[in-house]
Amino acid sequence: MQKTDKIFIAGGTGMVGSAIIRNLQNKGYTNLIASYHSRKPKYDEGLNSVETIQIDLLDSNAVKSFFELKKPDYVVLAAAKVGGIMANNIYRAQFLYENLQIQNNIIHNSYLNGVKKLLFLGSSCIYPKNAPQPLKEEYLLTDTLEYTNEPYAIAKIAGIKTCESYNLQYGTNYISVMPTNLYGPNDNYDLEKSHVLPALIRKMHLGKCLIDSDWEAIRDDFNNNPVLKVDGKASQEEILGALGHFGITSNGGETKITLWGSGKPMREFLHADDMADACVYILENIDFDNDLLGGIKGGIDPKNPKPINKEVRNTHINIGTGKDLTIHDLAYLIKDIVGYTGEIIWDAEKPDGTFRKLLNVSKLNNLGWKEKYSLEDGIKMVYKMYAGN
User: Fold this and answer.
1) CA atoms 191, 196, 199, 204: torsion sign
2) Is the bond leading into 134 cis (omega within 30 degrees of zero)?
3) Distance of CA 170 to CAs 112, 163, 291, 308, Å?
4) 266-267 and 325-326 beta bridge pairing
5) Which of 29, 271, 295, 298 could form a disulfide with 168 if both were Cys (CB 3.0 to 4.6 A apart)?
6) What is the rounded distance in angstroms from the CA atom of residue 14 to the CA atom of residue 20?
7) For this structure, is 152 an active site residue?
8) Of the residues 111, 127, 152, 166, which is catalytic?
9) Is 376 helix (H, G, I), strand (E, B) or coil?
10) 0.90 exceeded by the pTM?
């Protein structure tokens, strides 16, 4: 990759896309294009400018026109419809349709327009619910998926197979990476749609504010991110009602936070800046045929594709730390970092999700990359940023 190569980051407003943009900029890449859907991104001051374009990635004609006009050299497919257990279970059709549509539009138009390399980002939820731990790439499609996020997982598996199949038929250089659970700057703190770590940070922060009777901070928080359409201008009773809907209660000076499930499931977490560093490392150093297939090439001429006389599977790469902890321990770690001194209650009648999702990251480590941030240090950085904003 040359520093002036045109790199398109689909989904540049989100935590993943913006982290990759920061990493690319810090490494001196100057020709970046980021798409956004509704919220125009703001990037770090002092870094090279990013061209931002509003595109509805569900619209195949809009995506086609963009690729024909801009002709990117490299593509990072970080755009997706994402959310936690609640959102995945409620919006099942949207999670399946929208993710399939986004990735199909971008992958196919990358092929039509001669993109040199594409990086497709999936998720560790692609693996079977009861697969052996830690999860190796070879465990894909060996058993039943976790039901609560099955539509999202199916879409991401389809993305892996689309990249793999285009490589084998057309000789493209499309690589799929499966990050573990991510957290970091620009995370989603919506209490209905966020993942577990940012949701815990916000709940503990709001619980601490209730204990401190810091209503100015609570109203600031609600103005930045309204809860059930309740913002900081609402009455204390309305705000307390919205908090109570998500298990944050204060009664007679006693503050409690109720969390879903038993707290026993284990999760692995990776800071978004580490994830971005791994992605850029793969873009710069790893190729599908040489590094993932040992030099075997697929068809190059689309009119005369060359079949490979072997089964090619599981060419994706896990991105993670190879270390996990229980949700219970995560909650108490965040409790200590935030300074929340109230009670935590576990609602075991609510679903836990998959019991454990620890990635085996030996393939990535053998390719030459390892994470930098510990979980505790990463959460401290994220909470300082969240509280400051």
Assistant:
1) positive
2) yes
3) 11, 10, 18, 12
4) antiparallel
5) 298
6) 10
7) yes
8) 152
9) helix
10) no
